[in-house]
Structure to design on (477 residues):
């Protein structure tokens, strides 16, 4: 099983805590060991001193009991004996009750030591009793030799008993040191075991995880690199295609321009011939031939219109003239003037707000407004056309709107009508299907957008934007 990083973290903290705990216990054990060691040394030292003191007591008692009653040295010897006795007695009691053993706690003597103390107790008491009597006597007396005998008689047993006690102390001290050493070894082994477990269950999976993550990272970097390379290739390809498209568009526009331009001449000839024919034979032909002649004449007019529009459309792309300040209000009025006949015919009412001065080409703005106005008059509803044009400054651009109360357009065709040769009408309403395509092209070439909002039967509003480059209009109507 592969543990999660959270699991590994918990294990790592647990192992670290265990190691810390073991180290603390190890330190405590070492401290106890050191303290025990110094206590044992002190006890052994005092026990050894008891031997020396008992010999000193014997000597001092002997000197007091046998020397002449010379006052000054006798007093000195008595004090000496008393001092030695008091230290000897205090040390004996302390050793026997175990008080010396430790500063922190009262540790009882072991059963073995207690038995040894019991064994020397009668000798101790006899020596203490006899030496105290000698020390307290004012002058040597005949009893003294008896007391001295008692001291000397018990001394060797006491001394050998003390030797056994010291040896027992040494054995016990050694056993304690060994016990603590064993404990230390166990603690060390436990620490090593925890560290091994940590290596096995924390570090090994962690290292595995890290190497996995590195491998993943390397793989992803490689993937990313190849993805970047792929995208660069696609981008270059796209750039190349865009450049090819621009070039072929330019060629097409040039071709369209050339064709429409060159078609004008033969069309003019055909039109001239048709008109000549009409003038010569009007009234002399039968009804069918008259009808045919009318079709021919209308087709010539339509063809001319088409050629003019195609020419205008392809000209927008090849426009070389630098943009100028254009009074859009004047351009609108000029377009409306050119449409006077259609306006009067349709009975249209046209109004507008203030229009700005913008940067661009005047002819293009006139063409733009002409197409929008003529469409608004052409695609009328039951009521006479009411057209209102407005301009509004918005987000660094001028937003123009041409609103009519005409028949409206189904939302399905809102985009399609801006395509070339796209018409929603039959032949009953004249048109080439190029007007709106031309309008959008003009707007986009000037850095703006164009769209329509409309519903069938509710009129249409054609919108377009023109970037505001700081020109101001003071035009009003
Ligand atoms: P054309 O007018 O020569 O047919 P346009 O490109 O100007 O070509 O218009 C395309 C089509 O969009 C028109 O055939 C017409 O159906 C529709 N259209 C354009 N303007 C309007 C309008 N104001 N109201 C309703 N329909 C319109």
């Amino acid at each position: 099983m592969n543990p999660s990083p959270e699991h590994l973290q918990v294990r790592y903290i647990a192992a670290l805590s265990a190691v810390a705990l073991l180290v603390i216990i190890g330190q405590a054990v070492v401290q106890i060991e050191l303290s025990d060691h110094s206590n044992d040394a002190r006890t052994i030292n005092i026990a050894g001193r008891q031997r020396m003191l008992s010999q000193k007591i014997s000597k001092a008692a002997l000197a007091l009991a046998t020397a002449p009653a010379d006052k000054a040295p006798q007093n000195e010897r008595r004090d000496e004996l008393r001092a030695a006795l008091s230290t000897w007695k205090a040390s004996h009691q302390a050793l026997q009750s175990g008080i010396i053993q430790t500063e922190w706690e009262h540790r009882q003597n072991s059963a073995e030591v207690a038995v040894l103390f019991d064994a020397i107790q009668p000798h101790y008491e006899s020596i203490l009793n006899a030496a105290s009597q000698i020390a307290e006597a004012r002058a040597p007396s005949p009893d003294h030799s008896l007391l001295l005998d008692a001291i000397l008689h018990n001394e060797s047993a006491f001394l050998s008993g003390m030797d056994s006690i010291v040896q027992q102390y040494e054995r016990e001290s050694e056993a304690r040191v060994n016990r603590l050493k064993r404990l230390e070894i166990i603690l060390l082994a436990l620490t090593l075991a925890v560290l091994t477990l940590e290596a096995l269950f924390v570090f090994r999976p962690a290292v595995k995880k890290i190497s996995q993550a590195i491998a993943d990272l390397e793989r992803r970097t490689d993937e990313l690199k190849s993805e970047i390379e792929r995208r660069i290739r696609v981008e270059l390809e796209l750039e190349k295609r865009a450049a090819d498209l621009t070039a072929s568009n330019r060629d097409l526009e040039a071709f369209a321009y050339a064709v429409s331009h060159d078609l004008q001449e033969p069309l003019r000839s055909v039109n001239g011939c048709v008109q000549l024919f009409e003038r010569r034979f009007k009234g002399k032909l039968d009804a069918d031939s008259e009808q045919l002649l009318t079709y021919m004449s209308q087709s010539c007019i339509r063809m001319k219109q088409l050629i003019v529009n195609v020419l205008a459309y392809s000209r927008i792309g090849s426009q070389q003239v630098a943009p100028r300040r254009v009074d859009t209000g004047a351009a609108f009025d000029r377009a409306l003037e050119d449409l006077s006949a259609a306006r009067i015919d349709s009975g249209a009412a046209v109004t507008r707000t203030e229009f700005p001065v913008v940067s661009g080409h005047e002819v293009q703005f006139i063409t733009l407004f002409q197409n929008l106005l003529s469409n608004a008059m052409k695609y009328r509803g039951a009521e006479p056309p009411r057209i209102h044009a407005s301009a509004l400054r918005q987000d660094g651009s001028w937003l123009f709107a041409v609103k009519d109360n005409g028949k409206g357009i189904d939302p399905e065709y809102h985009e399609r009508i801006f395509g070339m040769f796209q018409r929603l009408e039959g032949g009953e309403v004249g048109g080439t299907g190029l007007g709106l395509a031309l309008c959008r092209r003009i707007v986009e070439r000037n850095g703006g957008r164009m769209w329509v909002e409309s519903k069938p039967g509710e009129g249409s509003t054609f919108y377009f934007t023109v970037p505001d480059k700081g020109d101001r209009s003071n035009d009003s109507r």
